[in-house]
Amino acid sequence: MTSKTATGAFWNPWRLAGWGLAATLLILPAVAMNFTAEVQWTVSDFLFMGMMVGCVGLGLELAVRATRNSRYRAGAAVALLTGFLVTWANGAVGIIGNEANPANLMFFAVIAMAIAGSFAARFKAPGMAVTMAAAALGQFAVPLIAMAIWSPPIDMDLARTLLFNSVFAGLWLLSAWLFRRAPSAACENGAP
What we know:
By secondary structure, this protein is mainly α.
């Protein structure tokens, strides 16, 4: 039997809106496939997107449960969104050249660094700020490292790549700034 508090938390309008948006993100490609040949998703595409959306949703749920601090929650939301967008853009069209370019694999190292750093920081706001700043630096460095490793230069529109990548680095920095502005005891439960 659920308590009134647990039931009220389940029917929270923000929670319903968030998971509703997640479901919509999965339904849209299925609907689009009926109207255009441009969208051709396989079962594995839907499973991968479901996993990505589910991880972001779960991460947000944990951050919201861990603290009432809005800056910490916003920092977590921006970090999760950035990881999602980097993964999505990288898999769909590629950030450097096209999605088959091996240089794009380095962006997954940035996301892995953000995840590992979050655990190392024990999800405490000061450590999260440092971790997200390091992710921003890593994000910005990937195209430069790719140009240094692959000679002659890899298939890359340099201006587009640097601009696109700078947006992601800026999002990591925004997350770092939000965590920096959160009180150091923002995550009361130890881990979001």
